[in-house]
Amino acid sequence: MLINIKNNWELPESMVTSESVYRSRRTFLKSLGYGLGGIVFSPSYLNGANIGFSTELNPLYVLKELDLTPYNLITSYNNFFEFSTDKEGPKKLANKGWNSEPWMIEVRGLVRNPIKMDVNDLIKKIGGIEQRVYRMRCVEAWSMVIPWNGFPLSKLIKLVDPTADAKFVKFTSFIDPGQAPRQRRRNIHWPYVEGLTLSEAANELTFMGTGLYGRAMPNQNGAPIRLVVPWKYGFKSIKSIVKIDFVSKAPINTWQALQPREYGFFANVNPNVSHPRWSQATERIIGGGFFESRKETLMFNGYEKEVGHLYYGVDLRKFY
Ligand code: MTE
Fold first, then answer.
1. In a domain, 216, yes or no
2. What CATH number does the domain containing 203 carry?
3. Is the dihedral of CA 88, 263, 192, 118 positive or negative?
4. Which residue from 31, 55, 122, 196 has the fewest beta carbons nearer than 10 Å?
């Protein structure tokens, strides 16, 4: 019997119910013959619309309660501290004149083929975009399910070809205090910085997001390009990246520098280790209704099969 075996991390379509716009887009795609499953788009669709679900219902899969977060919530409840510390602030303040187009990105350091080019040219060089529906779990104990478009970071790693000395990848966000009001304050050492080990960066789940719901990335969600690391707390998924450095030593990420007792380098989602000020055992589902529903938080945010092996020998009882 031929069974279509999906990647473990793919959320079956039956698990993600969507807003009506998205459903009708899918129907449209089907009518064009795109069907479902592993869609990779040609460069003419860069940053554009027309992406359907890349997952199929697998009858052998045990369904969990997990709905796709509507577009309007994903784009109006944000953490983007360069602009605001309110959840509603980034949508307003990141669209007041801040321009994420054109956008140069530089990939450099311990690599054989460094790159410095416009993001759209990079996407073309990578060979187009695909879609990933991922859970996102914030360290503040709330969660969403988001259909990203973009490309796996592993493709970029292949392109730049790291040398044997490269052990970590450091990501740096933009700096523009003229447009990003909170960068005028000195309580955080700007620009926002994040880091991964090279093996985390090369994992099949690690994704460079260039949009969501088949549309270009909204400014407030990290236009035009951001990291998406679904098994780690959301603060690892750095937005609006201008620089990626391959380095030999672990970079100190922004939150770790601010409060090392509360925010570590790994920051893997772990329901068994409380934040010093709150439990991480459950999470509030954004859009879960007036008495917002909670669900149990899963180890590695549910991606243990795919990433657990990266942490053999690491003491996960500590808050990393
Ligand atoms: N990246 C930058 N540059 N600045 C930020 O403030 N916040 C992080 C992360 N990436 C942040 C960032 C945090 S705390 C979270 S939870 C996610 O972005 C939120 O992503 P979202 O607003 O798209 O949901």
1. yes
2. 3.90.420.10
3. negative
4. 31
Q: Which residue reads 């926002």 in tokens?
A: 192
For the stretch 218-231, pLDDT in tens is: 999 999 999 999 99
Residue nearest to atom 4 of ligand 1 (CA): 80
Domain span including residue 274: 13-311
Question: In degrees, to the nearest 5, what angle opens at C-alpha 32 toward C-alphas 28 and 37?
Answer: 85
Q: Which of 144, 237, 255 to mutate to test the pocket of ligand 1 (most atoms within 8 A of CB)?
A: 237
Residue 2 lies in a domain: no
- N-term to C-term CA, the chain: 44
Alpha carbon 74 to its chain centroid, in Å, reads 12
**pLDDT number for residue 317:** 72
What pLDDT does residue 288 have? Answer: 80
The pTM for the full model equals 0.85
As for ligand 1, residues whose beta carbon falls within 6 Å of it are 78-82, 138, 173, 192, 221-222, 234-235, 237-240
Low-confidence residues of the chain, pLDDT below 50? 1-5, 14, 17-64
Atom of ligand 1 nearest to the CA of 234: 16
Residue nearest (by alpha carbon) to ligand 1 atom 12: 238
